[in-house]
Amino acid sequence: MPAVTKTGAEKCFYWVTTRLVRESGPWYVSSEGICSPQNVYRMMQEHFDLENCDREHFICLYLDRKGHVNAANVVSVGGLSSSIVHAREVFKVAILGSAASVILVHNHPSGDPTPSREDIDITRRMKEAGDLLGIEVLDHVIVGATGCYASLTEMGLM
What we know:
Layout: H1 37-47, E1 57-63, E2 69-77, H2 87-96, E3 101-107, H3 117-133, E4 136-143, E5 149-151
Parallel strand pairs: 3-4
Antiparallel strand pairs: 1-2, 1-3, 4-5
């Protein structure tokens, strides 16, 4: 085997591959898909119990072209009144899973689902990022106390 000499000018690089690994989990079965904020709220009740969380959880639902959820991802778990959310984390799963659209969801541990200025700003930033990527942000649903939620789409804030 010939000797390999390095002159110091060579640089090593690595091939990086990323694969989507589907893990088994609870399935949200609906022939109609997610067609309303109420359906989103129901799904959150069934699978995430956001109403009883003591910290903010920011979750994304990733939908196919027919509006069926093909993935859900807890993007961030924050503190009592905020969570840090980056577009790269929101859209990473969307891109890997070939999602056509995204629904943003998070909870307010205070129980009041009224959107804050930060909620509206995050929604605007995610919508802009989605527009650049060709992935529509359909809604941002905020879950409060039992039975309470707010939809930024229904409120005309999208």
